Amino acid sequence: MDPVPAPRHRSRWSLLSLLALAAPLAILNPSLADPLKQLETGFCSGCALSGADLRGRDLRGFYLIGADLRGADLIGADLSGANLEGADLSGANLEGAQLQGSRLSNADLRGANLRYADLTDAIAIQAITEGAQVEGLEFSGAELYRSNLIVGGDDNQ
Q1: Coil, helix or strand for 36?
Q2: pTM
Q3: Sequence-distant (≥ 6) Cβ neighbours of residue 13 within 8 angstroms
Q4: Domain ranges of the chain
Q5: Is CATH 2.60.40.10 the classification given to domain 43-157?
Q6: SS3 letters for 107-135?
Q7: CA distances in angstroms from 144 to 2, 65, 112, 123, listed in the order given
Q8: Cα(90)–Cα(95) distance, integer angstroms
Q9: Cβ neighbours of residue 27 under 8 Å, at least 6 residues apart?
Q10: Backbone angles phi, psi at 79, to 5 degrees
């Protein structure tokens, strides 16, 4: 049996449907084009926030899974209960940040400033912390399995 040939003419509506499906999500939802606007929703998985000024921001319970926060300024930010699994926080300034109960498993914290941050009850399994500044870091009750966090030594590092 011969296959039925496809129609040669498409309706105007089906062409518009294809264009709508092919349009970038940022056009359909302008908040996706601006990561800071998307951050306001509390769900910013994979957001590009490298170098962002987030000092003192209330980010409690936010979903920042896989977010790019390289070099971000998070001084005094409240990230209690936030999910930062797999986030890139290398070189970020988290001095005095509240990270109680946050999830930092597989996060990259290389060279981050964690001075006087509070990681009480945080989960940071396999977090990468080489070169992080940790003077005054509070981490009681934190799960740091397979993380290479080194506390102590020269406080002037």
Answers
A1: helix
A2: 0.74
A3: none
A4: 43-157
A5: no
A6: CECCCCECCCCECCCCECCCCECCCCECC
A7: 65, 18, 16, 6
A8: 13
A9: 33
A10: -110, 25
